Amino acid sequence: MNKVDHIGIAVSSLQESIALYTEKLGMQHIKTEAVYSQGVNVAFIDAGNVKIELLEPINRESPIAKFIEKRGQGIHHIAYKVSNIENRIAEIKEKGIQLINENPTAGAGGAQVAFMHPKSTGGVLMEICEKKEEL
Ligand code: ZN
Fold this sequence. Notes:
By secondary structure, the chain is of the alpha+beta class. The chain contains 3 helices and 8 strands; from the N terminus they run βαβββαβαβββ.
């Protein structure tokens, strides 16, 4: 893992957050899509060397809704880019790091993703993601 792909940020309103990043901070909105498996609407912002992934809950059962309820809006996870995610998951497990999902699931942008448990990673929710093509 040697490249941060994106930083995930939990927000209560995509519309307001997109306006913040684009109109006020001058960044480019790449695209918005719904990721039903995670219960979120996702907007990607181009921050140059890294993407900002804005996560808005679709419903109250969404893990992002629960996160915002508990801690408020803010940084949710850091995602590292990998190739061959299955091998990476096996390596991570071997090192004794607990995963939230041991099988890759579909994330935004057609990526395959897996999350490590913050208990194993110093309190930081870490994602690894494999993409077939760049956004
Ligand atoms: Zn992510």
